[in-house]
């Protein structure tokens, strides 16, 4: 029983530290200049992105491309600029984090 509690505690720490790491990456790559987790800024809130794409096949790949190349029309008239400072691996990591947002 004690092992189960310790394991659960370790898993929750690892999960939350991963979420903090992704938030730090989003800040470092200037994503947070236009986005926030729970509130619309210039672009949509991450929780709204997660809700819109929940369960959609290919959503991760589509959003990775949008992060890197930019896009327009999905959330209104303001286009999302390309982000050449974000590698594909970083974009994928960020998108997985965004899609897991509740």
State the end-to-end distance: 30 Å
Helix fraction by DSSP (H/I, runs of at least 4):
55-70%
Radius of gyration: 15 Å
**Biggest sheet statistics:** none
Shape-level CATH architecture: Orthogonal Bundle
From N to C, what is the helix and strand string?
Answer: HHHH
How does the helix and strand content classify structurally? mainly alpha
CATH C-level category: Mainly Alpha
Residue runs with pLDDT of under 50 for 5 or more positions? 3-17
* Overall pLDDT level: 85
Q: Percent of residues in beta strands?
A: under 5%
Q: What is the CATH superfamily?
A: Cytochrome c-like domain
Task: Tell how many strands the DSSP assignment holds.
Answer: 0
Number of contiguous helices: 4
Give the overall shape, derived from the CA principal axes.
globular
The CATH topology comes to Cytochrome Bc1 Complex, Chain D, domain 2
The total tally of domains equals 1
